[in-house]
Write a structure and sequence with these properties.
Pfam family, one: HlyIII
Largest sheet: none
Order of helices and strands: HHHHHHHHHHHHHHH
Oligomer: single chain
Bound molecules: zinc ion
Structural class: mainly alpha
Main location: membrane
CATH architecture of the largest domain: Up-down Bundle
Subcellular location: Membrane
Organism: Durio zibethinus (Durian)
Number of domains: 2
Keywords: Membrane, Metal-binding, Transmembrane, Transmembrane helix, Zinc
Shape: elongated
């Protein structure tokens, strides 16, 4: 059914009435609008509600036909108000909205915690500079202890700067802006994604606009993820900031401009989008190898490598789910509400961002102690 035909069906039904109990039933089950009984007809007061039923893939307007393996529980052409309140209803986007909204809340909490912790770090470092003597090199066992403590203290920056972690004297806290650029980029991506999933059922125009914002959010998250590692690793040789951060930002702007084309937002270009985002991520291999060579003897190399490898595995696995549309491809209709590929992809994106956050804390702590 085309979009125009679909609208015609909706208009045609405006004169028909509706079973008052139907709306509550519709919250949990899809309704085949074509086969609805004639005795659904009722007073005009329920006419408006009639549009807010969950429909099947076949009944969707063309612009919403994205994943043919999700058969039911779709919202289509809902008002903004109904779309907003549908965050508390079960449909096939509910978990897509919540996974990234909760991810946003998590990163907002981490940002607030770090903003509040900074003065205490300054105090602690001042205290440490007076209290602890300089001593020798760290070793491999120190590495694993660092990783363990770093993981356990991901939220608490104050604890990560406790004296048992390192023996070198802290110099002065480094600037935090690259770290907050990453946190800001992650929050923008997660929030724009959840807004996109919540409201893209409203209209074709809004759907396109929100998809563009969503892709811009993903690109922004990829670009901003480069800021903490590149800035802190090459802090003493800033020309590399311009090379790598300039390079990834240009690549990101090119991506955003390319994905403004409505055609590239369609399901046909799913693999192309994944490829372009993955390429941006893989750009990180170049400064990664460079950094590993420059810091080969740094004991923190293994810790950050572990975090960043975890991030890469989360993101690449997520991309594989996004492109392959497994598991719904194997059992169409079984994963409409929970467990489909996009939800798995969302969760893996949050986990990848968390792993990168862990790596960023290690970079910060290292630079706080080792200025240029
Ligand atoms: Zn999404």
């Amino acid at each position: 059914m085309t979009f125009v035909e679909d609208q015609a069906v909706v208009l045609k039904r405006k004169n028909k009435k509706m079973d008052p109990t139907l709306d509550s039933k519709l919250v949990s089950q899809p309704v085949d609008v074509k086969n609805r009984k004639k005795d659904d007809d009722d007073q005009g007061s329920n006419k408006a509600k009639k549009r807010y039923v969950l429909v099947s893939f076949k009944e969707l307007p063309e612009y919403m036909k994205d994943n043919e393996f999700l058969l039911n529980y779709y919202r289509a052409n809902w008002s903004l108000k109904e779309a907003l309140f549908s965050i508390f209803r079960w449909h096939n986007e509910t978990l897509n909205v919540w996974t990234h909204f909760l991810g946003f809340v998590l990163f907002l909490g981490l940002t607030m915690t770090n903003l509040m912790e900074v003065p205490q770090i300054v105090d602690l470092i001042t205290f440490l500079t007076r209290s602890f003597p300089i001593s020798g090199d760290t070793n491999v066992s120190q590495d694993s202890e660092d990783l363990f403590l770093g993981t356990a203290n991901l939220i608490d920056l104050k604890r990560i700067t406790t004296p048992e972690l390192d023996v070198n004297l802290p110099v002065t806290p480094v600037t935090r802006w690259p770290f907050y650029v990453f946190l800001g980029g992650s929050m923008f991506c997660l929030l724009s994604s959840s807004i996109c999933h919540l409201f893209s059922c409203h209209s074709h125009h809004l759907n396109l606009t929100l998809l563009r914002i969503d892709y811009t959010g993903i690109t922004t998250m990829i670009i901003t993820s480069f800021f903490p590692p590149i800035y802190y690793i090459f802090q003493c040789d800033p020309k590399w900031h311009f090379v790598y951060l300039g390079g990834i930002t240009s690549l990101g702007l090119f991506t955003i401009i390319t994905l403004l084309s409505p055609t590239l937002s369609t399901s046909k270009f799913r693999a192309f989008r994944a490829l372009i985002f993955s390429s941006m991520g893989l750009f990180g291999i170049v400064p990664g190898i460079h950094a590993a060579i420059v810091n080969w003897s740094n004991p923190r190399r293994n810790i950050t490598l572990a975090y960043e490898s975890a991030m890469a595995i989360f993101y690449l696995t997520g991309t594989m789910f996004y492109v392959s549309r497994i598991p719904e491809r194997l059992k169409p209709g079984w994963f409409d509400l929970a467990g489909h590929s996009h939800q798995i992809f969302h969760i893996l994106v949050v986990m990848g961002a968390l792993a990168h956050y862990g790596a960023s804390l290690v970079f910060l702590e290292w630079r706080d102690r080792n200025g240029c």
